[in-house]
Protein backbone atom coordinates (compact mmCIF):
# COMPACT_ATOMS: atom_id res chain seq x y z
CA UNK A 1 0.00 0.00 0.00
CA UNK A 2 1.14 3.56 -0.54
CA UNK A 3 3.49 2.60 -3.38
CA UNK A 4 1.55 4.54 -5.97
CA UNK A 5 1.93 7.79 -4.07
CA UNK A 6 5.58 7.21 -3.19
CA UNK A 7 7.89 9.89 -4.50
CA UNK A 8 10.66 8.88 -6.88
CA UNK A 9 13.18 11.48 -5.74
CA UNK A 10 15.96 10.28 -7.96
CA UNK A 11 13.91 10.48 -11.15
CA UNK A 12 12.61 13.92 -10.21
CA UNK A 13 16.08 15.26 -9.47
CA UNK A 14 17.56 13.82 -12.65
CA UNK A 15 15.83 16.52 -14.69
CA UNK A 16 17.07 19.32 -12.47
CA UNK A 17 20.77 19.43 -13.27
CA UNK A 18 20.59 22.70 -15.25
CA UNK A 19 18.93 24.41 -12.31
CA UNK A 20 22.17 24.12 -10.34
CA UNK A 21 24.69 24.14 -13.15
CA UNK A 22 23.77 27.58 -14.50
CA UNK A 23 24.62 29.57 -11.32
CA UNK A 24 27.58 27.25 -10.76
CA UNK A 25 29.03 28.08 -14.17
CA UNK A 26 28.40 31.76 -13.46
CA UNK A 27 30.26 31.43 -10.17
CA UNK A 28 33.12 29.54 -11.76
CA UNK A 29 33.53 32.27 -14.35
CA UNK A 30 33.52 35.04 -11.71
CA UNK A 31 36.09 33.21 -9.61
CA UNK A 32 38.29 32.49 -12.61
CA UNK A 33 38.37 36.13 -13.64
CA UNK A 34 39.20 37.43 -10.15
CA UNK A 35 41.81 34.70 -9.75
CA UNK A 36 43.42 35.77 -13.02
CA UNK A 37 43.43 39.39 -11.85
CA UNK A 38 45.03 38.54 -8.49
CA UNK A 39 47.66 36.29 -10.09
CA UNK A 40 48.63 38.95 -12.62
CA UNK A 41 48.92 41.72 -10.03
CA UNK A 42 50.84 39.58 -7.53
CA UNK A 43 53.37 38.38 -10.06
CA UNK A 44 53.90 41.97 -11.16
CA UNK A 45 54.36 42.97 -7.54
CA UNK A 46 56.88 40.17 -6.96
CA UNK A 47 58.93 41.25 -9.97
CA UNK A 48 58.92 44.88 -8.91
CA UNK A 49 59.86 43.98 -5.35
CA UNK A 50 62.65 41.76 -6.49
CA UNK A 51 64.07 44.47 -8.75
CA UNK A 52 63.87 46.97 -5.94
CA UNK A 53 65.61 44.58 -3.57
CA UNK A 54 68.49 43.92 -5.91
CA UNK A 55 68.94 47.64 -6.51
CA UNK A 56 68.90 48.26 -2.79
CA UNK A 57 71.46 45.54 -2.26
CA UNK A 58 73.67 47.14 -4.90
CA UNK A 59 73.60 50.43 -3.06
CA UNK A 60 74.44 49.07 0.36
CA UNK A 61 76.16 45.73 0.09
CA UNK A 62 76.10 44.41 3.64
CA UNK A 63 74.55 47.04 5.93
CA UNK A 64 71.16 47.79 4.33
CA UNK A 65 69.52 51.21 4.28
CA UNK A 66 66.92 50.32 6.85
CA UNK A 67 63.25 50.67 5.80
CA UNK A 68 63.82 49.68 2.21
CA UNK A 69 65.50 46.33 2.78
CA UNK A 70 62.82 45.43 5.29
CA UNK A 71 60.03 45.93 2.77
CA UNK A 72 61.84 44.52 -0.20
CA UNK A 73 63.29 41.60 1.68
CA UNK A 74 59.79 40.65 2.84
CA UNK A 75 58.45 40.18 -0.65
CA UNK A 76 61.66 38.81 -2.07
CA UNK A 77 63.17 36.46 0.43
CA UNK A 78 65.00 34.34 -2.10
CA UNK A 79 66.55 37.11 -4.21
CA UNK A 80 70.25 37.24 -4.87
CA UNK A 81 72.10 40.29 -3.70
CA UNK A 82 74.81 40.48 -6.34
CA UNK A 83 75.49 44.15 -7.10
CA UNK A 84 75.24 44.01 -10.87
CA UNK A 85 72.93 46.99 -11.42
CA UNK A 86 74.57 50.17 -12.43
CA UNK A 87 71.67 52.37 -11.34
CA UNK A 88 71.83 53.86 -7.92
CA UNK A 89 68.71 53.89 -5.81
CA UNK A 90 68.08 56.84 -3.58
CA UNK A 91 65.86 56.38 -0.51
CA UNK A 92 63.33 58.84 -2.00
CA UNK A 93 63.16 56.93 -5.23
CA UNK A 94 62.73 53.70 -3.34
CA UNK A 95 59.93 55.23 -1.29
CA UNK A 96 58.18 56.43 -4.45
CA UNK A 97 58.41 53.01 -6.03
CA UNK A 98 57.04 51.42 -2.89
CA UNK A 99 54.09 53.79 -2.81
CA UNK A 100 53.34 52.98 -6.45
CA UNK A 101 53.31 49.32 -5.51
CA UNK A 102 51.04 49.95 -2.54
CA UNK A 103 48.72 51.98 -4.72
CA UNK A 104 48.47 49.12 -7.20
CA UNK A 105 47.54 46.74 -4.40
CA UNK A 106 44.89 49.15 -3.15
CA UNK A 107 43.46 49.35 -6.65
CA UNK A 108 43.39 45.57 -6.81
CA UNK A 109 41.55 45.42 -3.50
CA UNK A 110 39.01 47.97 -4.71
CA UNK A 111 38.44 46.05 -7.91
CA UNK A 112 37.93 42.81 -6.00
CA UNK A 113 35.40 44.50 -3.74
CA UNK A 114 33.62 45.89 -6.80
CA UNK A 115 33.41 42.51 -8.52
CA UNK A 116 32.25 40.71 -5.35
CA UNK A 117 28.54 40.87 -6.40
CA UNK A 118 29.47 38.75 -9.43
CA UNK A 119 29.96 35.83 -7.10
CA UNK A 120 27.42 36.69 -4.38
CA UNK A 121 24.47 36.56 -6.77
CA UNK A 122 25.21 33.06 -8.12
CA UNK A 123 25.95 31.90 -4.58
CA UNK A 124 22.62 33.25 -3.37
CA UNK A 125 20.85 31.58 -6.30
CA UNK A 126 22.59 28.25 -5.76
CA UNK A 127 21.46 28.34 -2.15
CA UNK A 128 17.86 29.18 -3.12
CA UNK A 129 17.79 26.43 -5.76
CA UNK A 130 19.25 23.81 -3.46
CA UNK A 131 16.65 24.77 -0.86
CA UNK A 132 13.89 24.36 -3.48
CA UNK A 133 15.18 20.89 -4.41
CA UNK A 134 15.62 20.04 -0.74
CA UNK A 135 11.91 20.78 -0.20
CA UNK A 136 11.26 17.54 -2.07
CA UNK A 137 12.90 15.59 0.74
CA UNK A 138 10.13 16.75 3.07
CA UNK A 139 7.31 15.80 0.74
CA UNK A 140 5.63 12.70 2.18
CA UNK A 141 3.72 11.51 -0.92
CA UNK A 142 2.53 12.54 -4.37
CA UNK A 143 -1.01 13.14 -3.09
CA UNK A 144 0.10 15.55 -0.37
CA UNK A 145 -0.50 19.32 -0.52
CA UNK A 146 3.28 19.84 -0.17
CA UNK A 147 3.83 18.01 -3.44
CA UNK A 148 1.16 20.06 -5.23
CA UNK A 149 2.84 23.22 -4.00
CA UNK A 150 6.25 22.02 -5.15
CA UNK A 151 4.85 21.03 -8.54
CA UNK A 152 3.25 24.44 -8.94
CA UNK A 153 6.65 26.08 -8.45
CA UNK A 154 8.21 23.62 -10.87
CA UNK A 155 5.52 24.29 -13.47
CA UNK A 156 6.10 28.05 -13.17
CA UNK A 157 9.84 27.47 -13.57
CA UNK A 158 9.41 25.26 -16.59
CA UNK A 159 7.00 27.72 -18.22
CA UNK A 160 9.31 30.67 -17.50
CA UNK A 161 12.22 28.76 -19.02
CA UNK A 162 10.14 28.01 -22.11
CA UNK A 163 9.15 31.66 -22.49
CA UNK A 164 12.77 32.75 -22.08
CA UNK A 165 13.98 30.29 -24.71
CA UNK A 166 11.35 31.53 -27.14
CA UNK A 167 12.43 35.13 -26.57
CA UNK A 168 9.39 36.28 -24.57
CA UNK A 169 11.49 37.82 -21.82
CA UNK A 170 8.88 40.25 -20.50
CA UNK A 171 6.28 37.54 -20.00
CA UNK A 172 8.90 35.33 -18.34
CA UNK A 173 9.92 38.14 -15.99
CA UNK A 174 6.28 38.78 -15.04
CA UNK A 175 5.66 35.10 -14.45
CA UNK A 176 8.72 34.69 -12.25
CA UNK A 177 7.81 37.79 -10.27
CA UNK A 178 4.21 36.70 -9.73
CA UNK A 179 5.27 33.16 -8.91
CA UNK A 180 8.07 34.37 -6.59
CA UNK A 181 10.62 32.29 -8.47
CA UNK A 182 13.11 34.99 -9.48
CA UNK A 183 15.97 33.05 -7.90
CA UNK A 184 14.98 29.95 -9.81
CA UNK A 185 14.98 31.46 -13.30
CA UNK A 186 17.90 32.57 -15.46
CA UNK A 187 16.52 35.71 -17.00
CA UNK A 188 19.94 37.38 -17.42
CA UNK A 189 21.43 34.38 -19.18
CA UNK A 190 18.63 34.20 -21.72
CA UNK A 191 18.46 37.93 -22.28
CA UNK A 192 22.17 37.82 -23.08
CA UNK A 193 21.54 34.93 -25.46
CA UNK A 194 18.78 36.91 -27.13
CA UNK A 195 20.91 40.03 -27.45
CA UNK A 196 23.79 38.16 -29.07
CA UNK A 197 21.49 36.19 -31.35
CA UNK A 198 19.81 39.35 -32.53
CA UNK A 199 23.22 40.89 -33.23
CA UNK A 200 24.19 37.85 -35.29
CA UNK A 201 20.89 37.91 -37.16
CA UNK A 202 21.55 41.53 -38.07
CA UNK A 203 25.01 40.51 -39.32
CA UNK A 204 27.19 41.74 -36.47
CA UNK A 205 29.80 39.43 -34.95
CA UNK A 206 31.36 41.78 -32.37
CA UNK A 207 29.02 40.87 -29.49
CA UNK A 208 29.45 37.15 -30.00
CA UNK A 209 33.24 37.46 -30.35
CA UNK A 210 33.34 39.32 -27.03
CA UNK A 211 31.30 36.51 -25.50
CA UNK A 212 33.79 33.98 -26.93
CA UNK A 213 36.66 35.85 -25.23
CA UNK A 214 34.74 35.84 -21.95
CA UNK A 215 34.21 32.10 -22.18
CA UNK A 216 37.46 31.08 -23.82
CA UNK A 217 38.43 28.24 -21.51
CA UNK A 218 34.91 26.79 -21.37
CA UNK A 219 34.62 26.84 -25.17
CA UNK A 220 37.99 25.16 -25.49
CA UNK A 221 36.83 22.42 -23.17
CA UNK A 222 33.79 21.63 -25.34
CA UNK A 223 35.97 21.92 -28.49
CA UNK A 224 33.82 24.71 -29.90
CA UNK A 225 34.60 26.04 -33.38
CA UNK A 226 32.38 29.08 -32.90
CA UNK A 227 35.15 31.67 -32.73
CA UNK A 228 36.79 30.38 -35.90
CA UNK A 229 33.44 30.36 -37.71
CA UNK A 230 32.74 33.95 -36.62
CA UNK A 231 36.15 35.07 -37.82
CA UNK A 232 35.53 33.26 -41.08
CA UNK A 233 32.24 35.13 -41.43
CA UNK A 234 33.95 38.49 -40.92
CA UNK A 235 36.45 37.49 -43.59
CA UNK A 236 33.59 36.50 -45.94
CA UNK A 237 31.93 39.89 -45.40
CA UNK A 238 35.18 41.64 -46.34
CA UNK A 239 35.32 39.68 -49.60
CA UNK A 240 31.64 40.41 -50.23
CA UNK A 241 32.35 44.12 -50.03
CA UNK A 242 35.39 43.64 -52.32
CA UNK A 243 37.95 44.67 -49.70
CA UNK A 244 40.41 42.00 -50.76
CA UNK A 245 43.59 43.28 -49.14
CA UNK A 246 41.77 43.82 -45.86
CA UNK A 247 40.34 40.33 -46.13
CA UNK A 248 43.80 38.87 -46.62
CA UNK A 249 45.22 40.79 -43.65
CA UNK A 250 42.26 39.64 -41.54
CA UNK A 251 42.78 36.02 -42.58
CA UNK A 252 46.47 36.22 -41.76
CA UNK A 253 45.74 37.61 -38.32
CA UNK A 254 42.68 35.63 -37.24
CA UNK A 255 42.35 32.51 -39.39
CA UNK A 256 45.93 31.43 -40.11
CA UNK A 257 46.83 30.83 -36.42
CA UNK A 258 44.13 28.10 -36.37
CA UNK A 259 45.28 26.47 -39.59
CA UNK A 260 46.31 23.29 -37.85
CA UNK A 261 42.78 22.43 -36.75
CA UNK A 262 40.87 24.07 -39.62
CA UNK A 263 43.02 23.42 -42.69
CA UNK A 264 40.14 22.45 -45.01
CA UNK A 265 38.10 25.52 -43.98
CA UNK A 266 41.09 27.74 -44.48
CA UNK A 267 41.77 26.39 -47.97
CA UNK A 268 38.15 26.94 -48.92
CA UNK A 269 38.31 30.44 -47.47
CA UNK A 270 41.29 31.26 -49.65
CA UNK A 271 39.60 29.83 -52.75
CA UNK A 272 36.60 32.09 -52.10
CA UNK A 273 38.72 35.00 -53.30
CA UNK A 274 38.73 33.49 -56.77
CA UNK A 275 34.97 32.86 -56.90
CA UNK A 276 33.34 36.00 -55.53
CA UNK A 277 29.94 36.45 -53.86
CA UNK A 278 27.80 35.73 -56.96
CA UNK A 279 29.21 32.29 -57.60
CA UNK A 280 26.91 29.33 -58.27
CA UNK A 281 29.68 26.92 -57.40
CA UNK A 282 29.50 24.92 -54.19
CA UNK A 283 30.76 24.98 -51.46
CA UNK A 284 31.55 28.67 -52.05
CA UNK A 285 27.92 29.52 -52.80
CA UNK A 286 26.86 28.26 -49.34
CA UNK A 287 29.73 30.06 -47.67
CA UNK A 288 28.59 33.33 -49.21
CA UNK A 289 24.93 32.67 -48.33
CA UNK A 290 23.55 35.26 -45.88
CA UNK A 291 21.76 32.40 -44.06
CA UNK A 292 25.17 31.47 -42.67
CA UNK A 293 24.51 34.15 -40.04
CA UNK A 294 21.51 32.16 -38.79
CA UNK A 295 23.67 29.05 -38.61
CA UNK A 296 26.13 31.01 -36.48
CA UNK A 297 23.29 32.15 -34.21
CA UNK A 298 22.17 28.57 -33.65
CA UNK A 299 25.74 27.40 -33.11
CA UNK A 300 26.16 30.13 -30.49
CA UNK A 301 22.92 29.08 -28.81
CA UNK A 302 23.87 25.42 -28.63
CA UNK A 303 27.44 26.15 -27.45
CA UNK A 304 26.14 28.48 -24.78
CA UNK A 305 23.63 25.86 -23.66
CA UNK A 306 26.21 23.11 -23.43
CA UNK A 307 28.53 25.45 -21.54
CA UNK A 308 25.76 25.85 -18.96
CA UNK A 309 24.65 22.19 -19.09
CA UNK A 310 21.29 23.28 -20.47
CA UNK A 311 19.39 20.78 -22.59
CA UNK A 312 18.89 21.44 -26.29
CA UNK A 313 15.12 21.28 -25.86
CA UNK A 314 13.19 23.39 -23.35
CA UNK A 315 12.24 21.38 -20.26
CA UNK A 316 8.57 21.90 -21.12
CA UNK A 317 8.97 20.21 -24.49
CA UNK A 318 11.00 17.28 -23.23
CA UNK A 319 8.53 16.68 -20.40
CA UNK A 320 5.61 16.84 -22.83
CA UNK A 321 7.36 14.49 -25.21
CA UNK A 322 7.87 11.95 -22.43
CA UNK A 323 4.13 12.05 -21.78
CA UNK A 324 3.17 11.95 -25.45
CA UNK A 325 5.45 9.03 -26.14
CA UNK A 326 3.62 7.09 -23.43
CA UNK A 327 0.30 7.81 -25.17
CA UNK A 328 1.40 7.28 -28.75
CA UNK A 329 0.02 4.21 -30.53
CA UNK A 330 0.62 2.88 -34.06
CA UNK A 331 -2.81 4.32 -34.97
CA UNK A 332 -1.88 7.88 -34.01
CA UNK A 333 -0.02 8.75 -37.17
CA UNK A 334 -2.85 7.55 -39.42
CA UNK A 335 -5.16 10.26 -40.65
CA UNK A 336 -8.25 8.01 -40.74
CA UNK A 337 -7.73 6.59 -37.29
CA UNK A 338 -7.40 9.73 -35.23
CA UNK A 339 -9.07 9.63 -31.85
CA UNK A 340 -10.80 12.80 -30.70
CA UNK A 341 -9.60 12.35 -27.11
CA UNK A 342 -5.96 11.53 -27.92
CA UNK A 343 -3.59 14.54 -27.64
CA UNK A 344 -1.02 12.73 -29.76
CA UNK A 345 -3.54 12.46 -32.60
CA UNK A 346 -4.16 16.20 -32.79
CA UNK A 347 -1.98 17.56 -35.59
CA UNK A 348 -2.58 21.18 -34.62
CA UNK A 349 -1.18 20.94 -31.10
CA UNK A 350 0.78 17.98 -29.75
CA UNK A 351 0.82 15.85 -32.88
CA UNK A 352 3.72 17.85 -34.22
CA UNK A 353 5.74 17.32 -31.05
CA UNK A 354 4.91 13.61 -31.06
CA UNK A 355 5.72 13.01 -34.71
CA UNK A 356 9.31 11.86 -34.26
CA UNK A 357 8.76 10.15 -30.93
CA UNK A 358 8.86 6.41 -30.35
CA UNK A 359 5.59 4.62 -29.65
CA UNK A 360 4.77 3.17 -26.28
CA UNK A 361 4.82 -0.58 -25.89
CA UNK A 362 1.30 -1.87 -25.27
CA UNK A 363 0.49 -5.36 -24.13
CA UNK A 364 -3.31 -4.93 -24.31
CA UNK A 365 -5.13 -2.90 -26.89
CA UNK A 366 -8.64 -1.51 -26.66
CA UNK A 367 -11.14 -0.16 -29.10
CA UNK A 368 -11.83 3.56 -29.01
CA UNK A 369 -14.72 5.18 -30.85
CA UNK A 370 -13.57 7.51 -33.61
CA UNK A 371 -16.65 9.68 -33.14
CA UNK A 372 -16.79 10.16 -29.35
CA UNK A 373 -13.32 9.08 -28.18
CA UNK A 374 -15.00 6.70 -25.71
CA UNK A 375 -13.93 3.13 -25.13
CA UNK A 376 -15.94 0.50 -27.01
CA UNK A 377 -16.75 -2.44 -24.72
CA UNK A 378 -19.65 -4.50 -23.48
CA UNK A 379 -21.33 -1.37 -22.05
CA UNK A 380 -20.89 0.61 -25.26
CA UNK A 381 -21.13 -1.89 -28.10
CA UNK A 382 -19.44 -1.59 -31.50
CA UNK A 383 -21.93 -0.83 -34.32
CA UNK A 384 -21.11 -1.16 -38.00
CA UNK A 385 -22.56 1.18 -40.65
CA UNK A 386 -23.45 -0.07 -44.16
CA UNK A 387 -20.16 1.35 -45.47
CA UNK A 388 -18.20 -0.93 -43.10
CA UNK A 389 -17.00 1.65 -40.58
CA UNK A 390 -17.44 0.90 -36.88
CA UNK A 391 -18.50 3.37 -34.17
CA UNK A 392 -19.77 3.04 -30.63
CA UNK A 393 -23.44 2.57 -30.00
CA UNK A 394 -23.65 5.56 -27.67
CA UNK A 395 -22.00 7.92 -30.18
CA UNK A 396 -24.37 6.81 -32.97
CA UNK A 397 -27.44 7.21 -30.76
CA UNK A 398 -26.32 10.69 -29.63
CA UNK A 399 -25.70 11.76 -33.24
CA UNK A 400 -29.02 10.33 -34.41
CA UNK A 401 -30.91 12.06 -31.60
CA UNK A 402 -29.55 15.40 -32.80
CA UNK A 403 -30.33 14.84 -36.50
CA UNK A 404 -33.71 13.12 -36.72
CA UNK A 405 -32.30 9.62 -36.77
CA UNK A 406 -29.63 10.44 -39.32
CA UNK A 407 -25.91 9.67 -38.92
CA UNK A 408 -23.06 11.18 -40.92
CA UNK A 409 -19.98 8.96 -41.15
CA UNK A 410 -17.05 11.22 -40.08
CA UNK A 411 -14.64 9.34 -42.35
CA UNK A 412 -16.58 9.33 -45.61
CA UNK A 413 -19.31 11.91 -45.08
CA UNK A 414 -21.96 9.33 -46.11
CA UNK A 415 -25.38 9.67 -44.45
CA UNK A 416 -27.28 6.72 -43.01
CA UNK A 417 -30.29 6.04 -40.82
CA UNK A 418 -29.61 4.79 -37.30
CA UNK A 419 -31.74 1.75 -38.13
CA UNK A 420 -29.15 0.73 -40.75
CA UNK A 421 -26.41 0.32 -38.10
CA UNK A 422 -25.79 -3.26 -37.03
CA UNK A 423 -24.04 -4.76 -34.06
CA UNK A 424 -20.50 -5.83 -34.89
CA UNK A 425 -19.07 -9.01 -33.44
CA UNK A 426 -15.36 -9.12 -32.94
CA UNK A 427 -13.82 -12.54 -33.24
ZN1 LIG B 1 -3.58 8.94 -30.86
Automatic annotation (TrEMBL):
Keyword Membrane assigned: no
Compositionally biased spans, kind Polar residues: 78-89
Major place of residence: cytoplasm
Residues in RING-Gid-type domain copies: 342-412
A Gene Ontology cellular-component term: nucleus
Keywords, ordered alphabetically: Cytoplasm, Metal-binding, Zinc, Zinc-finger
PROSITE patterns recorded: CTLH, ZF_RING_GID
Family annotation (Pfam families): CTLH
CDD domains for the chain: RING-Ubox_Emp
Compartment(s) of residence: Cytoplasm
Coiled coil segments of this chain: none
Region listing for Disordered, in residue ranges: 63-90
Any one GO molecular function term: zinc ion binding
Domain CTLH: 190-246
InterPro entries: CRA_dom, CTLH/CRA, CTLH_C, Fyv10_fam, ZF_RING_GID
Gene Ontology biological-process entries: proteasome-mediated ubiquitin-dependent protein catabolic process
Family: Belongs to the FYV10 family.
Protein name: CTLH domain-containing protein
Species whose genome carries this gene: Gonapodya prolifera (strain JEL478)
Amino acid sequence: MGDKTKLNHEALLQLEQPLISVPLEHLRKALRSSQRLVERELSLLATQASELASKAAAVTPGAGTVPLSEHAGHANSGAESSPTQSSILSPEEAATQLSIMIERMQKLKKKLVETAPDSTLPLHRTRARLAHLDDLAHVPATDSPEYSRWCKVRLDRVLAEYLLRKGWGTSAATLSKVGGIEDLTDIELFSQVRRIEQALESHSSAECLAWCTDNKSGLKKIKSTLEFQLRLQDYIELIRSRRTSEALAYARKHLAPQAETHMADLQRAMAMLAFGPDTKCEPYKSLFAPTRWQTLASQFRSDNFSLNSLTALPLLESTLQAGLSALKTPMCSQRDNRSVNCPTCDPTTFGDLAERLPRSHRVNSKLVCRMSGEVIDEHNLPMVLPNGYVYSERALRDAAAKHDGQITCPRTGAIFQISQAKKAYIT
